[in-house]
Structure formats: C-alpha cells, structure tokens
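User: Structure please.
Assistant: Input sequence and predicted structure:
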Amino acid sequence: MRWQRLLGSAAVAVGVAAAPGCGTAPPVRAAVGEMPAPTLVVGAAEEPAVRLQKPEGESSRVVTASSPVPPAPGEVVVSVRATVNGQAILDSEVRDAALGQMSGLLRVAASDRAREEQKILDGALDAIIDRELLYQDAVNKLRRAGKKDIFDKVKESADKEFQRWVRSVKSQFHGDDEFKQYLQAMGTSLESQRRLRERMYVAEEYLRSNVLRFVDRATGPQDVLDYYRTHPEEFTRADKLEWQDIFLLASRFPTRDEARRFAESLAVRARDGEDFVALGRQYDDGLAKDQQGLGLGSERGKVKPPEAEEILFKLRAGEVGPVIELRDGFHVVKVLRRDYAGAMPYDEKVQLAVKEKIRNDVYQKERKRFLDELRKSAQIEKMK
C-alpha cells in the first residue's frame, strides 16, 4: 500500500537509528469501568493521546496495586499494569488483548486456571508493550518528519480493517443489542476494541515497513535453492497414501462365500469405473461410509485395519486392490493418492514452502532486533 511505503520512508527521513520514544507521551488520567472507553485523539502538532471521559466534577487518578494513598469516597481509579515512556497500559487493555485466549480457560482444570490465566495476561502485557514501543516510535518519527497526513491515512486503513472485523463478529449474533451484550459480558466495549486494534494495526504495519526489506533480500531464487540443498531433512517425505474403503459385514449375507463373492463383484465394478463413494453409500457397513469413503490411516503403522496396510502400499494411485478378508467380513479398497518415501522434488510447491520458511525466520529475527533497539532507549516499568 502507498501509505506503508510512505511510513517506511518517513522513518528513513528522520533516521531509523534515531532514539525512539525520547519524547514524553501525554499522561493517562482515568478510565472508568462502566464509563465510555478511551478515545484516540490526534492533535495537529501533537502525538496521539488518550482522552479519558468521566462525569463532570468527578475526581479521578491512576493507581497501581502498591499505591500508598487509598481512593477517596467517590473517586474513580483504574489499575495500571505497566508504563511505556510514561504511557500507561491499563489492566483493562491487557484483558481486552487476552480475550481470545482467556475463553480457552474453560477447558482448563479449576486448580490450574489461576496459573494459566496469569501466563496469558503476562504474555498479553508483553505483546502490548511491544505494540506500544512500535506505535510510539511510528508517531514520533512521523511527527518529526511533518507527516501527519500519512498517519491519518494509516488510521483510515486501520478503521477499515476494524469495520471488517466488526462485521465478521456481528454476523454471529442476532442484532446489535446481542453483540453489545456479548462485549459487556466479556468485560470490553466496541470503543476499547477499536483502540486496541487500531494501535495493533499501526504498530504491525510500521514494523513491516522497517523489516520487510531485510526479508526480501533474503528470499531471492539463489537463497531459496541454497536453503533447500542445505536442509534436506526438511524436504523428505514418508511413504504415504490416501485410500477408500468399503466394508461388508459377513453376517449380513446368507453364507460367508456369498459375502466374499459380492465383495469381489464390487471390486470389479470399481475397477470398471463406477463411483467408489456411491458404492460405499449403498453397501458399506463400516466407518468409511460417514467419511466420504475415506479409509483410516495414511502412513505405515497407522492404517486400520492393519491387514490392509501391506496390500495398500503395493498399489498405485487409482488402483483397486484385491478383496481383503477378515474374521468379521471383507474390505474393498482403492488408493486415491500415493506419495513415495524420499526427497521432495524442487518444484513450485516446495520453492514456495522454502521461501515462506525463510521469510518467517528472517522476519522473526529482524522483528526481535528492531524491538530490542527500541527497548534499549525506552523507559518500561511493570507494576507489581
């Protein structure tokens, strides 16, 4: 996107090595549990700030768990989990960011839930600190370069992404009221989610604008080929197949011989081109009937029934095997797809996989390097 290139160029214009976060972020006053959530405000010549809304005349301040002065009657307080260059990260923000993972705690044993919840919250806090470092650095560099118009375009793109997210989530509910009730039940609000996702979007795109050039340099054709040649263990495949199965229960026939003859007749029909899945829907007495005819297991040692494995791995793709007789009945089998053990060919599919692997590795390495540089000159404090 054009704004992403401009964002990157703005960083270059003021110097990527310039000390990030050296400006002082506006302080956060109070965010109230049931009051309207923080609203992002951009001043003409100022960094984005958080405007906190509260009833007129109501006192408010930010406190931590270790604050020496208890709240006065009627005073509104909020819990701060950390500060990044003076910018407070509220407990509510951390919990908003952890919503998706927290929903999984219902499957965790009650005795382990508190410990697992703390792990999730700690991870969410670290992610928000990274996000805040990136967000502040992006805003500072754009401000120094006089590129407020670029930030406005970034915000516009972030808002479009947020609206797409809202439409996607709201489609799972019956109307706006039910959606709002869900957000309230989860302890968040639409405005809280907007702020969270906007800052995530800006931070990630700023990171990409500073990191992707290193990724692109490392994923040329020769780099991809060299990786393939030096990591053969990553590009070997095991003997593998995908197969279809029809099981005939012997007790369903007058005699065992009749069951065998009918199984052999089905094998002939399948070899002659009749639809194997359709035959299974009509005659199968086994599990494959509910799996579009697919047999169980695709690798050696995992095929069920085990008696079918030796025969299956002798067949080529498209072949129908001999009838397999077991104590309870007879299996008619067909191999759909066959992969042979050995090195994977250096085809387009493998090249794309290699390139993606390199991209991910380099991206994570450069991401860490970039964030480590930001952390060196940042003032980060986690509250106890």
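The chain is about 50% helix and 15% strand.
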